[in-house]
Design goal:
The structure holds 2 protein chains of 2 kinds.
Chain A (H helix, E strand, L loop, with lengths): L8 H28 L4 H33 L1
Helix pairs in contact in A: 1-2
Chain B lengths: L2 E8 L4 H12 L4 E7 L4 E6 L6 H10 L3 E2 L2 E8 L4 H12 L4 E7 L4 E6 L6 H10 L3 E4 L3 H38 L5 H4 L7 H13 L3 H12 L5 H21 L5 E2 L6 H25 L1 H9 L3 E6 L2 E6 L8 E4 L8 E7 L1 E4 L1 H4 L5 E3 L4 E2 L4 E2 L4 E7 L5 H14 L3 H36 L5 E2 L8 E2 L1 H15 L3 H20 L2 E3 L2 H8 L3 E5 H5 L5 E7 L4 H12 L5 H12 L9 E5 L3 E6 L2 E6 L1 H6 L8 H9 L3 E7 L2 E11 L4 H10 L3 E5 L4 H11 L3 E3 L7 H10 L4 E5 L5 H6 L2 E4 L13 E3 L5 H36 L3 H4 L1 E2 L2 H20 L7 H5 L14 E3 L3
Parallel strand pairs in B: 19-34, 22-29, 22-31, 29-30, 31-32, 32-33
Antiparallel strand pairs in B: 1-3, 1-4, 2-3, 5-7, 5-8, 6-7, 9-20, 10-11, 12-18, 13-16, 13-18, 14-15, 14-17, 21-33, 23-28, 24-25, 25-26, 26-27, 27-28, 28-35
The chains are: A mainly alpha, B alpha+beta.
Chain lengths: 74, 854
């Protein structure tokens, strides 16, 4: 199998992007939960983890092909 | 963004070809550089794949009269379970440079790849599929393919069976333990089984053992940015398991309180999915039964005559020209022609004819058929991939790998489904956490199918539970199975009757046909005309027939052959003409020893300025009797009329009546004059007559009907009527016999039986009916179940869908689609229930003469 241009550095860039955005979404959730009056830290944490997890799954198939396209273009 | 490819161009012969190809490619937007090499027949193109596709490049080259050398390969892909998998595999292959087209079929586990040889290899394709988490091997043919397929199926059934065997007792114990405090179980099941730590110990091996495949599979896909149904399973199982673990060790974390366990959710969800996988592995093989049955027909051994001795060899070693011996009860190993002996051969497995066919020297025999009574020796004419059976298998396989337009739509929806399901799950979580919980949560909340209440559920715990149910319940597996399973069943059933659909789109098109146009000669009629009358004027009858035969001697038209045959039967020996010209739809002109002979219809004679005085009336009388009258003129003078007639096939009137009863308009296409054509059409009850149509105008007539808004099927012989068959929405080539692959048309009928036209449309309609029912069940399930999982009823009933119930509903949907498809196995086209080919009574007038068009 030939080495694809998106292998290596591009996949790292993609991972940083979708993980970064998912982390951001999780933080936004935690902040909004606090604003809502959620006092339990475990609830905020569990909710944040769940949001992070779902957002990662949503973003991966979007971000990876997008980064791959740009990597091919260079 | 740019990509560089070398395209293998065919048909270039000079520098101007090079310039043409270069100009055509350079004219496309997004093409940056083109270099065409005549010697290597390669065009190196640098292009922007976001602006121009490989298909655009191919089209540009083909539009100017050249071609791209392409190749097709079939891959056996394992591990696909839903339409999302299909889309993932399709995308992985389509993204490879040099791949033109990809079609992936879930039911046959086959990927068909059209590609440019030299730009991409099969190894790269296999690696691309494996890279997104599926198994891939190059698809073999014939017996080897059958062996490999059976072995792969056996392995998969064994693997899933073993998983189920491990999972079943564990899931049963977890379920008994969970429900131990309730009802009769409190007396029957020991109390220690309800211990959460024990439930943890029982569920963990179940999730990390048999359930691990879902996590591994979805992780492999995710690495490449691909999502599939396994991801939904993995998320559902993983979330239920984690909630249970958190609830065990931190009961106050808000997931329902100490009485809630959730281990049963993780365990039963895993068990249901494993059960579904096992049943799928068992039943999927059945779906491709038609192919396997055909493959099983392929003989493995052959008895070859070498140095006057019979030597038993593998069928792969038989070569064209070999003499083979077949004894009673043995299979004919390859196609050939009988040279010695006499027997009756059962050909039902290939042609659908139930009565054995007699075989004598000179007759053709087909590989895979069964010799019944006598022994015979035959000479092999076609071996390996060229035999009729191999061609039929290939055709059926291709049809089952192709996709109907309705299926492309379903795949598109299902392919995007996983992404949107996760978006919906996130939205569900956020809604119930921020809004729904405060508005509607009740301490009496229960998960459906579970005995305990979730009084201690916090907002976050409750919202996570609802979103997990959405994930599990939304699996689009039924949507992915609905169309291909029905198409496989339908095309397989059709093959049993000798009806070969060349693609799923042909099935869909045939189901929508509104008008069936029959070519007359050779289709409605037997196509073996004979001379019935000779009217002479100024010359003896024999002389008129002799001149007519001289004119037709070099003709290959059935009408010409009939005249030459009639002359020979009367002891005349027509000489070869020195000059000969056939004028399609009109007649022939020939010259012999300086004398000019013309034979043709009125129009032709009028064009040649020949007076028909005295003969026109005789011709009219013959035509009124349903015969084709042709004038014979020698040296510019009309000397006689030769009448030729054909006879209708026995099944013609029945087929026309059946089609009309199905609400289909029936039309006849013929070169005959309007008066005689109308006479036959009335006799048969045809709705429309397209008369006086020249052979070259047949396609235009079909086009004219299409322009009136009709979806048209054209029935004709695959060679002469090729343009009309191609123009029609459905081209049905009749009587292909043994060389089915060479036939044009979208549907190929192996036998010369018009009732198969009716049967083909009936099978197509039944198949599309099945597709629509399956899609209804699949979509109805998702449409109804997702809002239920979202909690739309929760404010009223205070129950939410448990993950295991979601799994049951999902499995029910797939099962309803599979069972509905199984009904096709017992399907018999109504026309075949009423008539078998050999039982159709000869209708009154069937033997009446029918004119022959030129």
């Amino acid at each position: 199998m030939p080495q694809h241009p998106w292998d290596g550095k591009a996949s790292t860039v993609a991972a940083v992007l979708y993980l970064g955005l998912s982390l951001l979404a999780a933080f936004v959730f935690v902040a909004l939960a606090a604003l809502k009056g959620e006092t339990s830290w475990s609830a905020r944490l569990i909710g944040g983890v769940w949001v992070f997890f779902l957002t990662t799954i949503i973003l991966m198939p979007v971000v990876i092909p997008w980064v791959r396209k740009h990597a091919e273009g260079r | 963004m740019s990509r560089r490819l070398s395209l293998p161009v065919e048909g270039m012969s000079c520098a101007s070809c090079v310039a043409n190809v270069e100009a055509a490619l350079k004219g496309l937007p997004g093409v940056r550089e083109v270099r065409v090499n005549l010697a290597t027949e390669q065009a190196t193109v640098e292009y922007d794949p976001t602006r121009v596709t490989l298909q655009d490049l191919r089209k540009a080259v083909e539009e100017i009269g050249y071609g791209l050398r392409t190749a097709t390969t079939y891959l056996h892909v394992t591990g696909m379970s839903c339409a999302s998998c299909v889309e993932t595999v399709r995308r992985a292959l389509a993204e490879l440079p040099g791949v033109l087209d990809v079609s992936v079929n879930l039911s046959t586990e086959t990927a068909r790849v059209d590609y440019l040889p030299g730009t991409v290899t099969v190894r790269e394709m296999l690696a691309a599929v494996r890279d997104v988490g599926y198994g891939a091997e190059e698809k073999l043919e014939g017996g080897a393919a059958l062996d490999r397929e059976q072995e792969a199926r056996r392995r998969e059934i064994h693997r899933q069976g073993r998983n189920l065997l491990v999972a079943t007792p564990l899931a049963l114990l977890v379920m008994l333990g969970t429900f131990q405090p309730y009802g009769v179980l409190s007396r029957l099941v020991p109390e220690f089984l309800h211990n959460k730590l024990l439930l943890f110990a029982l569920t963990t091996p179940l999730v990390v053992g048999p359930g691990a495949q879902f996590f591994v599979h979805s992780f492999r896909g995710l690495r490449r940015g691909a999502t599939d149904m396994n991801l939904l399973y993995a998320t559902g199982i993983g979330a239920a398991y984690l909630i249970a673990v958190v609830n065990t060790f931190w009961p106050a974390s808000g997931f329902g309180g100490p009485q809630a366990t959730f281990y049963e959710a993780a365990a039963l969800l895993t068990w249901f999915i494993l059960l579904g996988r096992y049943l799928e592995a068992v039943t999927r093989g059945r779906a491709s039964e038609a192919i396997r049955r055909l493959m099983r027909l392929q003989p493995r051994r052959a008895r070859v005559l070498r140095d006057d001795r019979e030597v038993e060899v593998s069928v792969d070693e038989v070569e064209v020209g070999d003499l083979l011996v077949v004894r009673p009860g043995e299979q004919v190993p390859v196609d050939g022609v009988v040279v010695e002996g006499y027997s009756a051969v059962d050909q039902s497995m290939i042609t659908g004819e139930s009565i054995p066919v007699e075989k004598k020297p000179g007759d053709e025999v087909l590989g895979g058929t069964l010799n019944k009574t006598g022994s015979f020796t035959f000479r092999a004419t076609r071996v390996g991939r060229e035999t009729a059976l191999a061609q039929i298998i290939r055709l059926v396989e291709e049809a089952q790998t192709s996709k109907a337009p309705i299926q492309r739509l379903a795949d598109l929806v299902a392919g995007r489904f996983i992404f949107w399901v996760h978006v919906l799950a996130l939205a569900t979580f956020l809604f119930w956490y921020f809004v729904g919980y405060d508005l509607w949560f009740s301490p009496q909340t229960r998960l459906m199918l579970t005995p305990y209440t979730l009084s201690g559920a916090s907002a976050v715990g409750f919202a996570v539970l609802v979103s997990v149910a959405v994930l599990v319940i939304s699996c689009p597996c039924a949507v992915g199975l609905a169309t291909p399973a029905a198409m496989m069943a339908g095309t397989g059933k059709a093959a049993e009757y000798g009806i070969l659909f060349k693609g799923a789109d042909a099935v869909e098109a045939a189901s929508k046909v509104q008008v069936v146009v029959f070519d007359k000669t050779g289709t409605l009629t037997k196509g073996s005309p004979s001379v019935t009358d000779v009217v002479a004027q100024g010359l003896p009858e024999e002389e008129v027939l002799r001149w007519a035969a001289v004119a037709e001697k070099r003709s290959e038209h059935p009408l010409g052959e009939a005249i030459v045959r009639a002359a020979q039967e009367r002891g005349l020996s027509p000489e070869d003409p020195e000059e000969f010209e056939a004028l399609p739809g009109k007649g022939v002109a020939a010259r012999r020893r300086g004398r000019q002979v013309l034979l043709g219809n009125r129009t032709f004679m009028a064009e040649q300025g020949i007076s028909l005085d005295g003969l026109a009336r005789a011709a009219e009388e013959l035509e009124a009797q349903g015969k084709t009258a042709m004038f014979v003129a020698v040296d510019g003078h009309a000397v006689g009329v030769v009448a030729v007639a054909d006879t209708l096939r026995e099944t013609t009137p029945v087929a026309v009546r059946e089609l009309r009863a199905m609400g289909i308009r029936v039309a006849m296409l013929t070169g005959d004059n309007r008066r005689t054509a109308q006479a036959i059409a009335t006799q048969l009850g045809m709705d429309t007559v397209l008369a006086e149509v020249l052979p070259g105008d047949k396609a235009a007539e079909i086009q004219r009907l299409q322009a009136q808004g009709y979806r048209v099927a054209m029935v004709g012989d695959g060679i002469n009527d090729a343009p009309a068959l191609a123009q029609a929405d459905v081209g049905i080539a009749m009587g292909a016999g043994t060389d089915v692959a060479k036939e044009t048309g979208h549907v190929v009928l192996v036998k010369d039986d018009l009732l198969d036209v009716v049967a083909a449309i009936q099978v197509a309609r039944a198949t599309m009916g099945l597709v629509k029912q399956n899609l209804f069940w699949a979509f109805a399930y998702n449409t109804a179940a997702i809002p239920l999982a979202f909690g739309i009823l929760y404010p009223f009933v205070h129950q939410i869908v448990s993950p295991e119930l979601a799994a049951v509903l999902m499995a029910t949907s797939s099962l309803s689609v599979t069972l509905n498809t199984q009904r096709m196995r017992r399907y018999v086209p109504p026309v075949r229930r009423r008539y078998r080919a050999e039982e159709v009574p000869a209708p009154p007038g069937a033997a009446a003469p029918v004119p022959v068009g030129r």
